[in-house]
Records
---
Amino acid sequence: RAVDLDRQQVTTLVGTSAQASRYPPEPGVAPDVALASPWDLALDGDALYIAMTGSHQIWRMDLRSGRVEPFAGSGQEGVQDGPRLQATLAQPSGLALGDGVLYFVDSESSTVRQVSLAEDGVVTTLAGPIWDIFTFGTDDGVGRDARFQHPLGVTRGEDGALLIADTYNNRVRRVDPRTGETSTLFGAEAGWRDGSEPLFFEPGGLDFADGKLYVADTNNHAVRVVDLVTGETQTLVLKGIQRFLAGPGDASFDGQVLRLEPQTVGSGPGEVILDVILPAGYKINEQAPSSMTWQVTGGVVALEPDANRALINPHFPLHIAATFQPGAGVLTADLSLVYCEAVRDSLCLLDQVRLEAPLTVIDGVAPKAVLGYAIAGQ
């Protein structure tokens, strides 16, 4: 599919939304060509290469004519090198373009391979075993002496080396495409750790830009950033999440809506207290902003000017200055709360809730309203 980032429109380039019923799938003209589990893409001018994992092939789409057809792989599963349409592949997954070649990780055979882009191109194995699809491991080495386990992602570094998401080994590996020399850059056992000796949990995808390697750390539910100059790894924190959430009164609000017990509060200057209780073993994310927005019906309360704001590392309860006016109405708080495991940030969650607090404001009592909410345990 194609996403127009300027128009914010998604269109289908090729595919019928159903897996191809024939094996291997039949070529044709887009968009009405049934595919079989496409996994990754690589664009070279008007040629779009598709990792067709379900049919053990790599396909090519001509973006000018719409023609879609096999480019490499016979459709049989295997590790046989040779002319591109006669070679056998085993669940090709990640793709990366080089100088006149397309690199790919063959996940089921645990190998790193390449196919030249010429019409008479051939498939060759750069690293990993070439005799069967059941040999795997963590060994570094040259060519067929190296071992991987179900690698899913590949990208090219600044020096032209291939960077591999060695998924089931929880590692990031490096392969020299000229020699097949393979080494381990980062990772060991499954885990979560930033710093100079990072741990990953089945990393699935990679991309490289400006000296940094971005890792989709699949089973840690995170994006990690590796500085290839310093060797330091950090976890990417997405900021500005509140921009994507429904605003006060928006009918498209997707969180839960809680109607709180009615309260009677005093008129005049006072405060609104927002108290959130997290599940045991969790903490508010210290970097990703949570947020709160407010609305009032009945004109019963005016909040401080910056009441609608991002919450960076908030400490509950929050005290918000308010002025109450006699009458009856509803004070509504829309909360977006990002919280993580307290011991290690291996799992972060987003909780959205709308708290509706009916208020009756009279003279003679304390000018204080309390909105309390406890996030359910996981």
Note: The chain has a mean pLDDT of 92.
---
Amino acid sequence: MTAPTATTMALQVPQQHQAAALTQRGARLEVVARPTPRPGPGELLLRVDVCAVNRADYKGRDADFPPNPQFPTVLGGDAGGVVVAVGPGEARLRPGDRVVAWAGPFFRGGDPNTGAFQQYTLVDAPNAARVPPDIALADAAALPVATFTAITALTTILGLPLTAVGAHAHGLLVWGAASSVGTVAVQAARSLGLRVYATAAPANHAYLATLGAHTLVDYSDPDAAVAEILAAARRDGVILTQAICTVAAALAPTVAILAALRSDGVTDAGATASRAKVASVDMPPADFDAAAASAAAQGVDVAFVMPPLDQATRVPHMARCFQWLEDNLASGALVPSPPARVVGRGLDAINQALDVLREGVSCAKLVVTLDHESSTTL
């Protein structure tokens, strides 16, 4: 191994490694050899021991959405592993730290040196959180994308602080609470003192109650779910004018609930209700603009959740999200959720994991564990 220069390296770093790369639009991922990069300022080099899959990953593979700006590229946002090198000036993390991180290439122009679906990947240092030794990386790998999405929804879209807002005087509706984002949103809302109204399949109700959901409703009949949540919120006397919707097809019933409660005029001061807000997590449907306009006419503002596009705003925002993740994992206020399901081992298993996810998964996070026998060390 050559002597470290601009980077601090304490662990063995390979000259080449294997990656499950997307080599052209619409293709299956292909395992290829790639040169292992060295981290620059503000970056980490992460040995990826486990990766989790998200809907954006199979849509990126199968439908080129969002469009990949270059090929080959490496997809994958959720990564768990060990820091093997840090770039100049990085003081928070060091080689040997067990972390989970967002490694997605979206804000890096599709740079194949990023992306979780490979044995080693570059990560922006603010986008990583240390994992306590008693938590398995396979479990914690479910959290990066779900956490920054849930925290972005709560803070940027809904305008909530990351401190307690009251003892159940306010509520949060989470439609699709058994999803990755939904389970983190439930836990975050509980920590804020919000009363959580959640929809999910009945088989997942008991699990969501352990995470902090107070009122659980079956979403299989949307009209019945709307009526049940309205009755519960009115009975509880809770101010419920904010929601996170994780299912694009459920935007209409989510809006209907907030619009009806807003018309009740229940606010902190008992005055006329202000506008309600929905943070929409799923990829916007084709009629999203029309649906948002219809909601706005009912006094409900709908916004799609994503990190700030402006880098100067995004970097501190992501740092805040991952510091929240690290702090709450360490304190036990956040547990990895939903339960991890290991689909397979090795980069070849990632296509299978994406196929399974595309067919539909409930209250589970699909993960793939990686080995490093095929990397070539210096």
Note: The longest helix spans residues 311-331.
---
Amino acid sequence: MSVPLILVTCRQMQIELPRHRDRIEELGYEVLVPDLGGRQQFSAAELLEYGDRLVGIIAGDDELDRTFFDGTPNLKTVIRWGIGMDSVDHEAARERGVTVRNTPGVFGQEVADAAFGYILNLVRGYIAVDAAVRRGEWPKFEGVTLAGAQLGIVGYGAIGREIAKRAKGFDMDVVAHDPFIDAAQSDVPIVELEKLLATSRFIVLACPLTPQTLRLVNAERLALVRPDAFLVNVARGPVVVEKDLIDALKHGRLAGAALDVFEVEPLPIDSELRTLPNVVLGAHNGSNTREGVVRASATAVDFLIEELIR
């Protein structure tokens, strides 16, 4: 009988695996690390090559759809390295009796740091100033003071709360929108989304991607936003309708945007976002620090082993 297989497909977890491989193999499993080849994720068809042997996977943004679950009859658990769960067909997993877990709470500080890095780049123009000085110029970019400005956070979980801490350190006024938070128990005012959009100078998206948040920021909601406002998305790309955002940025209905995530990743070469001067572009890398990777990887392996020995 062949040895049951554990796949590790998340790039960051692959880097950390040497610290943890023995813990998994001691339980009698083979651990396989397929080569991503510069890509961000595997398709369901690629993962199905491991079919009957596969009992567990520590996954990144892989396509874990119904086809995947139907084709892996011995699968016991999926550990989604990181926070996002939108690439997983949860209904199909439940039908197959597969436990799906992520690693919640491991990246709050890192993503909050990234959000403020984006904010500072937007309002102080550091990227543009750096490029100009390298060309021999000496620009005097007029920025925006953060103290006293309102920052609205959409999604007040672990990441949202860390963003609020940093905003308070900058003497900003903070409000948040989250339908799952009890306003009476919150350390910041919880307001309706429309009010947050209409009154905030800075809007940071930190919510999960769910059916309720898919295309949340669209033309109708962008019409509520102040023309001097800045939008930062460290959540998931499909929370924002990019064509509507591009239209608002091009026509002065929004001062600027910083995007760590996109509807399609990597960002297509022909995306108009690449041409806009009032946009700061990231590469879905807001959580990627040495300390964060170590923390998330240890948690992922802990959860994997918990599920395997049940």
Note: The CA atoms of residues 129 and 139 lie 6 Å apart.
---
Amino acid sequence: MFKSIATGSLVRPVSALWAGRSALAGSLLQQSKAMYHSYEHEDDPFFNKDSPKHKILEKAMDYVPEHGFQHKAILESSRTFGYSDAIQSLFHNGTFDLIKFYLIRERLRLKDYITTEEFTSLPSEKEKLKFLVKKRLMANAPYAQHITQLQTYLVLPPNIGEASQELHNLSDDIRFYSGDKANDFAWYSKRLSLSSSYVALELFMAQDKSPNFVKTMELADKRLSGVEDLGQVYNDVEEFLFYTVNSGINLLKSQASRG
């Protein structure tokens, strides 16, 4: 299936992106215990709410609908606080700092839902999982036109390690909040399945033109009903690989056209 789009010298750099993601997944599978949950790590220095960096990135999200996930959003934000452009030195990773901030912020916000009656009244772990995945997807709604751009940044070689780790963290939190207490190999397979399904849903959402993303929500119900089916895991990973190849080639073409 991939030969028609992955030919010549373009195969190697794109394959390298997938290899990096696979290597990280392998290292996660070698862990002996499921020890991570975000509530243990909210003091991450990157997410220090009293820091100028946090304030600038939080405000920068207001500019993302207009400018996309670009450094210009950070620049506009810093100027609203009266900072000189020299403060841009805080953002060593440029655009990826903004993307990482967004991913962490929305993951941590899921915790706000787990004490609501709407969530606690759900009858099963699976229904709670669907609820949280849909909430996370709908957090993308204000930035829906820029989801493809965001995903392209995530598969760039300098970013793919941290991006994959954050995807794992998201799956871990959703599973944990939904009531999953597994601590054997099922812990890994469940999170791999959810990670793959989430990526597939987000990619679908990027193309969804239905009102309030109703088609994405319907697909979420369908996919997540079989999220623990290993056959679906393989299908979802294949879809992500297809996307990775396409986005990598499009990025290379874009760079080439700019000279």
Note: The mean pLDDT is 78.
